[in-house]
Amino acid sequence: MATFTDPIRAEADFRPGDEEWLHLLVGDWQMVADLAFADLVLWHPSAGGTYVALAHVRPSTSHTVFHSDFVGERIRKDLRPLVQQAWTSGESQRAGEEHWTQESAMRIEAFPMVRNGRTLAVVTSHQDLSNSRMASRLEQTYKQCATDLLRMGMQGLWPDFATPTGSRRGAPRVGDGLIRLDAEGIVQYASPNGVSAYRRLGGVDSLESRSLAEVTTGLLRDHRLVDESLALVVTGKMPWRTEVESNGVSLSLRAIPLRDGKKRYGALVLCRDVTELRRREMELVSKDATIREIHHRVKNNLQTVAALLRMQSRRMVSEDGKQGLEQAMRRVATIALVHETLSQGLSQNVDFDELIDRQFRLAAEVASPGQVVHTERSGSFGGLPSELATPLSLVVNELVSNAVEHGLGERDGTVSLHAVRRTIADGSERLRVVVSDDGRGLGSEPRKDGLGLQIVRTLVTSELAGTIEWEPGAHSGTDVILDLPLRS
Q: What is the reported pTM?
């Protein structure tokens, strides 16, 4: 998969961990853009002594200053000296009024992103001042937090590799609620949304000048269910995430420690009320459990039907009747096997390779009570949706039984099953399945009046929307070839 560092990888002097650090930066800098009320652009040197824009993020707390995306473009001439000076000096730089126009006044700052003493990129912050007014305390705090994070980036202290990677549903954002702590974990500032989130958790009226750890633990009703990382998050000591639950309200918390080269001087804690999200997730889990239970009960009922057919076949006097009941029992057992597989997983997809391994050997053994039949399987079916797995299982079962009973006859031999997935010219995916035997060969396509082959043709054409062909084997026997479209 292409990444934003691909265009510069050949010429960039990246050392182990550098590229991953930049990806971690871009993965988390939406938070900085929201705090700074500014667009952020990531620059890296390119051929010809210029710079190229690798990434761009817009704030969700304010309007953007760039309505068009210029990622991949070279830097403007008037901006290049500022970025160049930040790159070479390793210090932040602020542009003067020469970047102001009659239409807008823009504050531009450049921050070199430094790791292990080496500048890896430069982040420029672009804030529109045309509608500026007296900044509120919230805006002042937000902008100070953004500056603190960018200055940590200049020292290689942020982003932190200890931060959990990967998405987590309900991860808090700046607009959801922000709390700033000092080094002792005392709240210096809490945004209105942050106070509201804690109020829903347990009726807290004010957070400022109070220990966030003491406030949080005082709201918990059951301390046995507390996440072990909670203490380190609410004191701002580690860049982790956790959740607290009280009075039916779930609160997601994320801490970002603020450090300089010597010590930790504070922390940011983002909080978000995720009660509704967790309620919906519980509903989904409950539905998944219900679906698995339904598959389990269907499997049990089908196994009961198969057992009844087996008992009935034992009482049959006619050999044709007994054989018919045994074939019906085998088909019911095949469908039950698919439902058993579905009852064991959360997905409605079936690992068909694991399923068919069991069924393939069983079908050959049941069809050959008086002879030795070897089975060989190659290729891969991959994961298939349940609506394809059930008819395909029945088709394979009938073809294997037919290969043993009619292809090998009463001789010992081998039945092979091969599957391959392929992508054709129009981009769609197809599955090719070949069932082979090394018997005497049918000489031509088999008769169409057999119940088993009628079932196969119906399932292949109607349920699977594919084709089926019979061909002579390479040396002996018969190859039955299925060509099926795969639906996602």
A: 0.63
